[in-house]
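Private note to self, pasted from the team thread so I don't lose it. Backbone tokens:
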């Protein structure tokens, strides 16, 4: 499959969750993009996988219906897109994925996810008029409780080595089944994306890491991912909205560094969707078009299992299959830079608090 070995295709092979994933390192025409999708589909089938996904940048907006019809599959094609700017050109970030038939969630599950995303979108619209007053209160509470922001910044400006690497690795391996070596690399700013990543953390007043958040750098912009709380500190974390504070401050820093035109696009599940909207993210509208070639927009189906909050870290070492446990579904959202850019100074203040 030459398409998967082209210099601009970063192909990760098949992982322990049955996913064949690839990323494009430069913009391509839609025809070339779809050719890589077909090659991924063939590869995943031959390798015994159950899901493939491709992310990259193409010229101009894309019709999800056109994508589905041209790929011509009888199971759901997932399509998410958002405008982005690459080297001064206005282009489209495009994510396309497909699960093989027995990995597609049941209709009632898909309907539940649709309704939940719509509820979160409604909550975001209700929050918008009071976003800044509520954010101010949230940050004041975080200050009063002595929370501080840490970052392993590949560029060094926001510090490096402040994130507790041992706990960071334990959290990623326990809750997302990330390979420990990959988690170690991610803690040090590489190993997840083609452009490196930031590893952020929120420490409590005793200097102990409470929550982590990763922001990955891609050719189309940034991807927020791996928002994980330390379950042993669950009560104070929930009471102080620590995940929202951490994501908000990280978002403010990356918008200041990368520019307000930089696309920040990612996924949220039912556990973190509402903290995400308080951090400035806006869920995209889900659309289900169940024709002869079904296409679902702005959702991600059965992507990965989540670790159990109720068992000790390190007690589960095997990745459960999608036939054994329900795999997690996600909605897709983008960051609204106008909401978070004013909090850059606050982020620097919380960083300074960690440095003493």
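Design output:
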């Amino acid at each position: 499959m030459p398409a998967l070995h082209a210099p601009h295709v970063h192909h990760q092979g098949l992982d322990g969750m049955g996913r064949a994933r690839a990323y494009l390192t430069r913009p391509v025409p839609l025809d070339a993009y779809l050719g890589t999708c077909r090659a991924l589909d063939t590869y995943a089938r031959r390798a015994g996988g159950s899901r493939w996904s491709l992310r990259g940048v193409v010229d101009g907006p894309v019709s999800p219906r056109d994508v589905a019809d041209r790929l011509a599959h009888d199971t759901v094609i997932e399509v998410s897109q958002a405008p982005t700017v690459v080297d001064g050109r206005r282009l489209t970030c495009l994510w396309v994925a497909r699960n093989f038939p027995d990995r597609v969630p049941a209709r009632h599950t898909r309907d539940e996810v649709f309704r939940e995303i719509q509820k979160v979108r409604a909550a975001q619209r209700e929050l918008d008029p009071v976003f800044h007053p509520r954010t101010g209160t949230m940050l004041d509470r975080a200050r009063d409780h002595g929370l501080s922001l840490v970052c392993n910044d590949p560029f060094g400006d926001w510090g490096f080595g402040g994130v507790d690497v041992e706990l960071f690795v334990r959290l990623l391996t326990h809750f997302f089944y990330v390979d420990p070596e990959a988690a170690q690399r991610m803690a040090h700013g590489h190993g997840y994306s083609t452009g490196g990543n930031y590893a952020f953390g929120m420490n409590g007043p005793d200097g102990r890491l409470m929550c982590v958040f990763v922001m990955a750098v891609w050719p189309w912009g940034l991807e927020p991912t791996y928002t994980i709380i330390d379950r042993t500190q669950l009560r104070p974390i929930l009471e102080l909205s620590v995940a929202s504070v951490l994501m908000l401050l990280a978002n403010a820093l990356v918008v200041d560094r990368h520019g307000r035109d930089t696309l920040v696009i990612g996924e949220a599940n039912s556990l973190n969707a509402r903290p995400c909207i308080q951090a400035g993210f806006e869920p995209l509208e889900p659309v289900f078009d169940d024709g002869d070639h079904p296409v679902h927009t702005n959702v991600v189906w059965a992507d990965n299992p989540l670790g159990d909050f109720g068992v000790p870290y390190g007690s589960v070492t095997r990745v459960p299959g999608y036939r054994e446990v329900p795999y997690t579904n996600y909605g897709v959202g983008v960051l609204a830079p106008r909401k978070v850019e004013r909090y850059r100074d606050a982020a620097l203040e919380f960083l300074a608090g960690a440095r003493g």
